[in-house]
Amino acid sequence: MRQISILWAAANGNEGVMGLLLERKDLNLDMPDNKGRTPLSHAGAKGHKAVVTLFLDRENFAAGNEHEGVMKLLMQRDGGRTLLSWAAAKRHGRVPDICPDLADKEGRTPLLWAAGNGHTEVVNLLLTREDVNADMLDKKGRTPLSWAAAKEREAVVRLLLERQDVNPDELDRRGQTPVVWAAEKGHEVTVKLLLEQGSVDPDRPEFKGH
């Protein structure tokens, strides 16, 4: 029941409930649902920035008598403090109990979901992590940029194109690149952004292996 609660709280963006659940030590924070999606995946897909931040700044608050609880932290967040800054002030160590790049059964990571749904702030948060692959391929061979381009998520496309570790001309298993997806959907601004990248070839032949 507790595992269902954390999936529900993440998907619905309930920061208060999530804060309480994160105090517990008996929860698997990466436990997937029947589609292989983690609580972070659901929060990222819905654009719940505050909940995503709670996950990414996950700390061990049960450190001796200094433990003051996540709810006190949540009240402090209005003052510009994050979980990480509060924990650092209390000298608590990080707990490596969350993998922010876990893929679901379709091979889609939290970043892929957030990018495809146009949640720029969440995408930006995830990209600050060294353990998040900005160019991860799902089982269809599609990247975060591919999904963002196909769905006309202009701000996300711009953000991803700023990175050197993102291939703007990645060919998926259908034989299409991000610019082909954008052109097929009629997204002129996105097509223009992609064509401004010197490495994008609009006449690239389709991949014949699949």
Automatic annotation (TrEMBL):
A Pfam match: Ank
InterPro entries, per database record: Ankyrin_rpt (IPR002110), Ankyrin_rpt-contain_sf (IPR036770), Cul2-RING_E3_ligase_SR (IPR051616)
Keywords per UniProt: ANK repeat
Coiled coil: none
ANK repeats: 106-127, 174-199
Keyword rRNA-binding included in the entry's annotation: no
UniProt cross-references to Gene3D superfamilies, sorted A to Z: Ankyrin repeat-containing domain
Entry protein name: Ankyrin
Native source species: Choiromyces venosus 120613-1
